[in-house]
## 1
Amino acid sequence: MVASKSDTYVSPEDYLAGEKVSPIKHEYRQGEIYAMAGASKAHVIITGNVFALLRNNLRGSGCIPYVADIKVRIEAANCYYYPDVAVTCDERDRNTAEDFIIYPRLIVEVLSPTTAAFDRGEKFADYRTSEILQEYVLINQERVSVECFRRNAEGLWVLYPYTQGQDVQFASIDFSCAIEALYEDAILL
């Protein structure tokens, strides 16, 4: 996430207005704005693979996957993030003119060396404040490894790790595929 950080407090309204005219994307976290860095080829390919697989699987289900350029608003944490892939199944997200969603069921982040610690730590802590989010998925772009954090019936987040040769499952949207499909053309298996 962090390429450069602003040093002054910015209101959410000012952030959203600025983001509409900015030539680059920024994430917003509790009054601070962070410019987004570019992505590697592997990152872009994996993100595209995830989106394509989810889009095909979710047709007609009422759930919509979004890729890269849609913001997710996490109201309780006062944040706006651009996840690599987000899936909403909530009609309130479909019936709004806003350029962000509020009710994600699934969020996928492809880890970059510069963002991995933040994605695992503070960003995941912010996402956990969403009562709607059911799964948070971290995909390693340098080796075949997927970590799926799933909220259980008690509200606790449980890790489901996947490695080469396994089927990845996103229970929140009734999806599964061979892990290799996520990495197709991205890295040597």
## 2
Amino acid sequence: MPYYGYGYYNYTDFLANNLYFLLLIPVLLLSIWAQFQVSGSFRRYSRTATRRRFTGAMAAEAVLRFNGVYDVPIRPCRGNLTDHYDPRDNTIYLSEGVYDAPTIAAVGVAAHEAGHAVQYAQNYAPIRVRSAIIPLTQIGSSLSFILLFIGLFLYSQSLFFIGIVLFSFTTLFQLVTLPVEFNASARAIRTIEEMQLLYEDELPGAKKVLRAAAMTYVAALLMSLLQLLRFVLIFIGRGGGRDRGGSR
């Protein structure tokens, strides 16, 4: 006979949603705190000039040279905190408040982006993995929620499962991003220390800026894991494989 089990499904959906919102509160607070830390730390140490007068561009150049990388141009770009390394044209782009700025924040941020360029030059494994899964991540972010919604609406476990699989690539991308970002910061700090780009009492400021930025990636991963957990719980609660209209 047909078995839809609406009461059972609604109850398990209720549990999944409640668990999700219970865990969402601390994760959301962490995300908000991390964003405040990034903007606050960058603003604070952007007002603190380095006594050695190294600009962001000079710091990025120093990191590249220290690691034996000589073919990566460093160019300014518009915006605030838009600094990034683009592997497509092998170029480091530094924002207006970093490129020419001789500040602690500029040195830290620029050195971090140069760390990414060094990772590519040295074939750092996690960044290669991240680059390889970008196409899957783009497909997943575009289609996963569509399939999840259709699967819920039609009670199609098959479509819902495919949506979960596609969404999991986004979570995997966030997971692989963590070692990439932490390693880039470690390379930056090591170069700053060994080449003495900052005085000893200035170094904690650069570390604070980079730690705050790293926490935003931690928060993003936790949020993605939480979403994935919610979808998995809903899938299990709805029978783990029975489409609506199946027989019992």
## 3
Amino acid sequence: MVTNRPYTIVVLAMSADGKIADVQASPARFGSGVDKAHLEKQIALVDGVLFGAGTLRAYGTTLMISDPELLEQRELQGKKSQPTHIVCSGSGKIDPKLRFFQQPVPRWLFTTIKGSQIWQGKREFHKVFAIKMLEEGINWVAAGEKLAELGLQKVAVLGGGKLVASLLEADLVDEFWLTVCPLILGGENAPSPVAGAGFLANLAPKLQLLSVKTVDQEVFLHYRLQR
């Protein structure tokens, strides 16, 4: 287990059949207002928010904290009003015209040396980090160490499935918050919470259920990774 890294929580909403988007990878707007408030609360508890470039491309924006009580809590804790929003992209190819770049949040990019070259001399990202590479992509252990070095003690991961899979494979995830929403999306190629090559049953990460909460038609599941 890697110890020099932030405490990491994955927060996702999914359909009853375990899809986080439809077959066209459309933005997942099927969660209720309660789910959005739940997500905002989780974001308010962390120092940084991580998401993949595919997630950013789908939405074009990131979720900011707007609840006055949550903003006041962060102020009392001596934190900035918004956590750092960190895009993770091996290629670094992101449209600078996305509305995300006009949102008043600290913006970082975790990418490769090649990806970082795209953003040299540009101001869309406040910081760009070229992370060490492995054959299959970014070295997430090195990325976790960099986040800890930068003072981030707790981070939330908002997708997509490839990023979550990479973090799980590197043993960098501590908790899951999964909201089960009352619809069936189906589709062999529809995105799921964890993509990648998958895990064999005897090697799969095991979870401990911490809580179950039902609000109207949604179920909120809270898990901790067993180690």
## 4
Amino acid sequence: MIRRSGPAIRASMRVLIIDPDEARAALVAEGLSEVDPLEVTRAPSFEAIEADLARLSPDVIVIACESPDRDTLESLKEASQANPRPVVMFVDRSTPGLAEAAVTAGVAAYVVDGLAPGRVRPVLEVAMSRFAVMQQMRADLEKARADLASRKTIERAKGLLMKARGLDEDAAYRALRKLAMDNGRPLAAVAADLIAFAGVLKGDDT
């Protein structure tokens, strides 16, 4: 592990550098010399460190290599799906389709023939900011989908109450809300239970 100190520009940064070339990895660390405190861990390959990613919990992963291979990108994609984090890739050369494959694998910044100490920190900070924005967008999208699903479930449960008790829409909603409050459970959860119970009574296998 390499530790460097200097004028603080961030509260802290944990960086995982994946590069079989120690000299090239040192260029990345040099470019972050102003970060304090800084923790840099280097591994020769993604496969060599993959099992320790959760323990290391890096703020950003930097992959530097001559050219990315498909196996590394596939492993990175699987790791990103399980535990997403910003990834920056510096490559000496690239072939058509590799940049797209890298982005699909979760790479936030793909830089060809541009590894120089002075560029490292700006590239990493932009990648980390872009990653944070994308994560927030994904979270907002998932919340919107969950909210829509909840509304559909509540509407369906209201329809069941309206039909079973002869209630209007407002009365059915009030009955559903009272049931949720009495049980101390979310409205959508109670609605889902009601739908499931109605299915059981009807002999619905789904």
